[in-house]
Amino acid sequence: MRHHLLPFALKLFTTLMAFMHLFRWQFWWVNRAEIPFEFLDFLRGMRFDLSVLGYTALFFFPLFFGLSFIPSKSMVTRALWIASMALFALILLPELWDLVYFQYTLKRSSYEIYLLFLAGDDALQFQGLFERFWYILPLLLVWFAFFALILRKFLRTIPNPTKPITSQVGILLLCLSGAFLAARNSVGPKPLGIMDAAQFGDPARSQLILNAPFVLLKTLQISPLPNYHYLDHSTERRIFNPIRNYASDSSEFRPNIVVIIVESLGYQQLGRSVNGIPLTPFLDSLIRTKFPYQPTAISGGKTSIECLPALFAGIPSWMETPFILSNYGLNQLHAFPKMAYNKGYRTLFFHGATEGSMRFGATVKHLGFHDCFFQDQLVETNEAPGSWGYHDHTVLTNLQKELKKTTRPFLACLFTLSTHEPYDIPSSYRKSHPELNKEQASYHYLDDCLRRFFKEASRQQWYNNTFFVITGDHPPVHLDHAGLTIADYYQVPMLLFSSSGNSIACNDHLTVIPSLCNFLGWKESIYSFGHESDISIRYLNGLYHIWNNQVHLEFNEHLQEWNVRKNSSKDPDILNKLKQRFYARIQRYRNDLRSNTLHP
After folding, report:
1. What is the DSSP string of 448-494?
2. How many Å is the Cα radius of gyration of the chain?
3. Among 4, 70, 130, 267, whose Cα sits 20 to 30 Å from the Cα of 100?
4. What is the pLDDT of residues 102-143, one digit of tens each?
5. What is the C-alpha to C-alpha distance for residues 34 and 480, in angstroms, rounded to an integer?
């Protein structure tokens, strides 16, 4: 052995610890509107930083020890340079990615999110993301340059060994033992985990305490569902059962059904004007003429991939991993499209992006949509696809053409995309509204597309026997900045109406299936967690939120702690009742996931 690399390794990992601390400040600065400042959180986060470095040291310490036997100092230096830069990249790149994606989910990115973008067609959207988050590339170059300068100083002097090989092997084993303890960050039976960050007050702070590489490491293999037993079986079934039999004395009504899901549309965006220009005049007029009540609902989650299972199968997003991306994504479902198909409906799904985008292709087929029209299946036009896919007016035109050819009842769903970053709309439309920024113009464009769609549809034979559902998949994240209640984080418009003027009140994505089946008189056994709409439950940042108009509870299951955020009820037993209702739902949900019984 010619070289002694232990001093270099200690300097390297101490420097990486300092960089990870700087990355946390960077993360907070970019997302400071979402994360309250608490200096102690930066110190608490060092525990998670140390754990990441412990895991990496278990690999790199033996590597450095092996490199020490290379006779040529120049070769050793070159190898150390490559290994150290690679190690730094493994830490830096996830941190930079979280600067972007946290703004969409309010969560650190798990392994499934990276797979979604890197292994699927969504990788094509990186260009649009880089255009919006242009500062990521300069940050990447600056951080790499800064680290390279420090690394160069470390590599200038690598001392020769002063101890025999046996002593150095002993030191290596001691270092590996220390790295193992640092990685576990615990002397108990369980190593440090993601949920250990969710115990310091505001749930948004836990995302600051964590770091991106730690979350990535901990989600490489999806953890099993918690197995808490809150209620006995009979009590659970007495309080809540997701299976409900819908029956009617009258014959079933089988109209056409058109579902339009608007990307990133929150209810607070409706009724707005910019420089005297209404952003959504058509939707605003639709609400005024058809709805005597406020048509709002709670979205299925904070991301698009949480919407479809909630809307069409009544499946909530009560896990760290979205249902679609979890181990249970292929569980058997008795979803609404399958019901409709069994009743003679033609089921169609339209989306302008590729079939692999957001894994919509596999998801909608699993839900029961038989005819799926993505970017490659849409009728050719003279237009080139935009950043995400074909613009909304092109997809709506294809939808119109396909519905004209359908001779039997149909269930058609359109998932729009133009109101998503980078708000890519036809350049001609953008130029005609210079007073609007890109985001505002995209909503004005989408509203105009819907106006033209309904104008053309009203001339068609199928229109007079059609029921429409219009909703947003989730509110845009920037509206969260002004959120006053937990409901504000999820509030989307929900318009359920027929061409004859009838409308249905529906206050949650999870209640759409039960509401429709009840209104249409369908004799069905429905599996849905939305049968009762007087309580909402959502999982966000390690906490379960349980609320209605009078009460808002938070439950940290990891610590088994409840927090009362609001209670204006006069019922002295209201808190206990809500807790029991939550326990019944979460216990049944997990049992059905494990046993693949998400169906009647």
Report:
1. HHHHHHHHHHTTSGGGGGEEEEEEESS--GGGGGG--SGGGGTEEEE
2. 27
3. 267
4. 877 778 888 877 776 765 556 556 666 667 788 888 999 999
5. 8
3-state secondary structure 106-160: CCCCCHHHHHHHHCCHHHHHHHHHHHHCCCHHHHHHHHHHHHHHHHHHHHHCCCC
Question: Any idea what the Cα angle at residue 405 is, between residues 404 and 408, rounded to 5°?
Answer: 95
Q: Which of these ranges, 56-65, 178-187, 447-456, 481-490, has the smallest mean pLDDT? A: 481-490
Q: How far is CA 516 from the centre of its chain?
A: 26
Distances (CA, A) of 173 to 64, 84, 169, 446: 13, 21, 6, 62
Cα–Cα distance for residue pair 42/50, rounded to 1 Å: 13
Helix (H) or strand (E) holding 503: strand 503-504
Q: What CA–CA distance (Å, rounded) separates 598 from 316? A: 11
Is 287:485 a contact under the CB 8 Å cutoff?
no
Separation between Cα atoms, residue 336 and residue 348, nearest integer Å: 12
Q: Cα–Cα distance between 471 and 564 in angstroms, integer? A: 30
pLDDT, tens digit, 9 for 90 and up, residues 14-72:
999 999 999 999 999 998 888 888 899 999 999 999 999 999 999 988 888 887 777 77
- Rounded to the nearest 5 degrees, what angle is found at the Cα of 316, between the Cα atoms of 335 and 104? 115
Tokens for 418?
A: 């133009």
Q: In this predicted structure, what is the pLDDT of residue 584?
A: 97
Hey, is 509 helix, strand or coil? helix
Tokens 């270099």 sit at which residue?
8
Question: What is this structure's pTM?
Answer: 0.82
CB-CB neighbours of 291 under 10 Å: 17
How many residues appear in the chain?
600
Q: How far is CA 298 from CA 295, 505, 533, 552, in A?
A: 11, 12, 10, 14
18-21 contact pairs (CB < 8 A, 24+): 19/88, 19/91, 19/92, 19/143, 19/147, 20/49, 20/52, 20/53, 20/91, 20/95, 20/211, 21/45, 21/46, 21/49
Q: How confident is the model over 523-551, as pLDDT tens digits?
A: 999 999 998 778 999 998 889 999 999 99
Neighbours of 256 (CB within 10 A): 22
Q: Are 441 and 430 in contact (CB under 8 A)?
A: yes
Distance CA 251, CA 336 (A): 19
3-state secondary structure of 445: helix
Helices marked H in 472-562: 512-520
Average confidence score pLDDT of the chain? 88
- The Cα–Cα gap between 595 and 267 comes to 37
Q: For residue 2, what pLDDT is reported? A: 47
136-156 vs 6-30: helix crossing angle, rounded to 10: 160
Contact criterion met (CB below 8 Å) for 414 and 351? yes
Is residue 136 within 8 Å of 103, Cβ to Cβ? no
CB atoms within 10 A of CB 296: 20
Taking alpha carbons only, the member of 491, 496, 592, 593 closest to residue 538 is: 491
